[in-house]
Amino acid sequence: MANLKIYVKLGVDNKNIGACLESQCIVMLAHLKKSAHLIDNYTIIKVNPSKPPESFTSLGLRLRIPCIVLNNDAIDDPDEILTTLEDNFPGGLLKNEFESDAEIATRNFFSRFSFYVRGVAKDCHNLEQEFLLINQHLEKVVTRDSNNLFLCGSQMSLIDCQILPKLHQVRVALQSILNYEIPVHYRYIWKYLHSAYNNAAFVEACPPDEDIICHWSNKSQPLPEFVLVL
Length: 230
Fold this sequence. Notes:
This protein is α+β, with helices and mostly antiparallel strands. It is about 50% helix and about 10% strand.
């Protein structure tokens, strides 16, 4: 029986998972594999990076979160964690021809959001162009089958584990910090989000809104003004 421990970021409430995208992704992935009976069980350990417990520091890693310990082997590189979980517990995720299109449709929206919330971009035009691409992709997937709720079909794929935490944080941060709502005419994005909010894997991994707001408020300070001296 595999012994899997997942160390994730502790939220500002000292109770829930924090607003760490990689932590959310890995917890979602583990949940899906457990639901598919590929993992017997796993333990989530929430860690305050500034005050890590001895059980975490004794792993001899770089105090980087998230990390996993699988049968006494500790790994703290996010890409290596995903590879390790896939290699040791293959399956439990939808894989089909929509994956490459989903990657293309979603590859730039988070950077556009980051520019907007940090004040680098002065308006939401470029971000909404990325929302349009995601919405069009989701429409194509739903047109294939009305039961399709996620980026590649009726079940979650690996890319859903990576994109849904980002999209949710984008929605919450923009609404709170910039009073911006994802436009309702991107109806397939909203359908996608509501599918996530009713999915147990997403719910287990999702931080409270307050944690997301705190995280992004600290990154959204106005840029300093520079005076050019001639």
